[in-house]
């Protein structure tokens, strides 16, 4: 049922209208959070998380500014949101509607081929579906409800596991690429001493929700903690003990704890100290992506999984080894674009994991311009009839 539709990139439908975690649009015609937080009516330039109300404030501001940048006189009054997680994307969507009072509809997809096709309304405007191809029925319903789907409509598309690496179909490759980035970073920091099996054990244990107060569910924090545990200057049992006795309650405390260990441990390597210093100072300035070297390696390994398979590879080989464009999302996005809708890719993916670095990866293109195969179900005939 899946087909390979050849190579394409995100920019085909969103151009440079892409905004990552730092809330700095790639298209410089619209300024970002650093410069415009005051106009956005935010208290500071501190970067909000996707599920925060302040994130929605910023997003509404961006959408209005993009509308003027693309010289459309009609104000935005409708919003469509395509995502893969109810907690992040669903919440971001509800906040956006509450903040803007626009008419809205949200589609949350996750392929579950072991189940019969099913869609359910999570909230009046949030549709959950276990087939990405259900996007077309969703659009049909919106048409019946007299959504205009024209230049007054903003279409917000999540990137990871939505437009790229469809959840339930191709998302494992995104996780693989991230892990490859982590391991490369660990090899460069810890060298020969890096113990991958031990790292996996620690990562698996600490990735659980009971440790979220320590890790804030932040992959940078988690990678850092597992790196330090790998050097054995602190042991997992010690860390868990301190956590259970409430002497370690958040990540800042972990950083201070490790710092004292580093001071009393002359054997700890120079690279480890440098990484520790860099992360500590980023955390102090409120940067939600403090482990820069890891994220830059994640970008390199992500790009190694974009369009890396030959054109004659089978669909299953593509889905197993390449981060592919979700054909259903791609077709719907192009359909909306042709009707005059505003298309925006909005993602909490770190900027460092999505764009080349001048020193580390100057030869690579940015993620949204990387060409990779489009894989999925053809919705074209049904879209043409809409
Ligand atoms: Mg996602």
In short:
This protein has 386 residues and is of the alpha/beta class. The protein is built from 16 helices and ten strands.
Task: Tell me about this structure.
With 386 residues, the protein is an alpha/beta fold. The protein folds into two domains: 3-168 and 324-384, no CATH class; 171-297, no CATH class. 45% of the residues lie in helices and 12% in strands. The protein is built from 16 helices and ten strands. The strands form two sheets. Strands 2-9-7-3-4-6-5 form a seven-stranded mixed β-sheet, with helices on both faces. Strands 1-10-8 form a three-stranded mixed β-sheet. Magnesium ion binds next to loops.
Task: Tell me the count of domains.
Answer: 2
Biggest sheet, open or closed, and with what strands and sense? Answer: 7 strands, mixed
* Percent helix: 40-55%
Helix tally equals 16
Structural class: alpha/beta
Q: What's the total count of β strands?
A: 10
Task: Compile the SSE list and pairings.
Blueprint lengths: L2 E6 L2 H4 L3 E2 L13 H4 L16 H17 L8 E6 L2 H15 L2 E7 L9 E5 L2 E4 L5 H10 L8 E5 L13 H20 L5 H11 L5 H4 L3 H13 L4 H9 L6 H13 L6 H15 L7 H13 L10 H7 L3 E2 H12 L3 E5 L25 E5 L3 H5 L2
Parallel strand pairs: 2-9, 3-4, 3-7, 4-6, 7-9, 8-10
Antiparallel strand pairs: 1-10, 5-6
Helix pairs in contact: 3-4, 6-13, 7-9, 11-12
List keywords for this structure.
386 residues; three-stranded mixed beta sheet; binds magnesium ion; 10 strands; 16 helices; globular
